[in-house]
């Protein structure tokens, strides 16, 4: 526990000192909310009759939380390995679980602040989001989503050795996934074959679960299906992450 506490404290201090990254972590999802909220203000999706905001707010929130979890740990592991910090940690009594667990705690805090800020802005009169009665389900859904995408970030951070490679690989995965999973545009208005392709992407399950919990789209089965899908991906990513984790560039 002492190793976990020390790593968490060090990670927290590094996080708050990097003001630029901290700002864009929270501002980037809000930027998409403002853009899509103003463009599609007052418009509804023909297939469901629900407002575009019901889709885009939930989708952008899901993408923002997932993006922060992936990039946060991927960049940290890459930098720690480059600076030989991971090698020093390996020589100490601190286990791998303390390294990942410390970053997990920080990712949960970042995700909670992102969600509160995002929903608060979305509820302003200019956007008019009204959270559904099942909004408390957001808590377990987002926790599971952060877990899943943090483990994906561990894999990326274990393979990538430079900031450029982390950014390239993470963006290669996260940006197409955002468009194909319905984060920016409703899947209901996309071709049926594309909707089926999205089932192979973890962000689709997070989007569906958050959409019901936050905006009331679909029914409660979307939450449980989304959680089940995220759990499967978390188990797969976790297995791969353990097998591919590197303390140094060579091992």
TrEMBL record:
UniProt-listed Pfam families: ABC2_membrane
Keywords, comma-separated and alphabetical: Antibiotic resistance, Cell membrane, Membrane, Transmembrane, Transmembrane helix, Transport
ABC transmembrane type-2 domain ranges (all copies): 20-248
Highest rank taxon of the organism: Bacteria
Keyword Chloroplast listed: no
Bilayer-crossing regions: 21-40, 60-80, 101-125, 137-159, 166-185, 223-242
Keyword Transport: yes
Compartments in which it is found: Cell membrane; Membrane
Topology of the protein relative to the lipid bilayer: Multi-pass membrane protein
Record family assignment: Belongs to the ABC-2 integral membrane protein family.
Name used for this protein in its record: Transport permease protein
Protein source organism: Streptomyces zaomyceticus
């Amino acid at each position: 526990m002492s190793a976990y506490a020390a790593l968490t404290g060090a990670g927290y201090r590094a996080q708050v000192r990097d003001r630029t990254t901290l700002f864009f972590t929270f501002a980037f999802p809000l930027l998409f909310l403002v853009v899509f909220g103003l463009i599609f203000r007052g418009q509804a999706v023909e297939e469901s009759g629900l407002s575009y905001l019901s889709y885009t707010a939930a989708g952008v929130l899901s993408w923002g939380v997932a993006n922060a979890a992936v990039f946060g740990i991927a960049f940290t592991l890459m930098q720690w390995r480059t600076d030989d910090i991971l090698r020093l940690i390996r020589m100490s009594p601190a286990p791998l679980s303390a390294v990942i667990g410390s970053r997990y705690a920080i990712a949960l805090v970042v995700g909670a602040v992102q969600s509160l800020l995002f929903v608060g802005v979305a509820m302003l009169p200019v956007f008019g989001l009204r959270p559904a009665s099942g909004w408390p389900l957001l808590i377990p859904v987002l926790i599971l989503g952060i877990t899943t995408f943090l483990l994906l970030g561990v894999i990326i951070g274990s393979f990538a050795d430079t900031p450029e490679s982390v950014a390239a690989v993470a963006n290669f995965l996260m940006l197409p996934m955002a468009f194909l999973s319905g984060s920016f545009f409703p899947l209901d208005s996309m071709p049926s074959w594309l909707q089926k392709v999205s089932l192979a992407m973890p962000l689709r399950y997070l989007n569906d679960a958050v959409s019901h919990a936050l905006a009331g789209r679909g029914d409660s089965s979307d939450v449980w299906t989304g959680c089940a899908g995220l759990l499967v991906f978390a188990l797969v990513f976790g297995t791969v992450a353990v097998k591919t984790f590197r303390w140094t560039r060579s091992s």
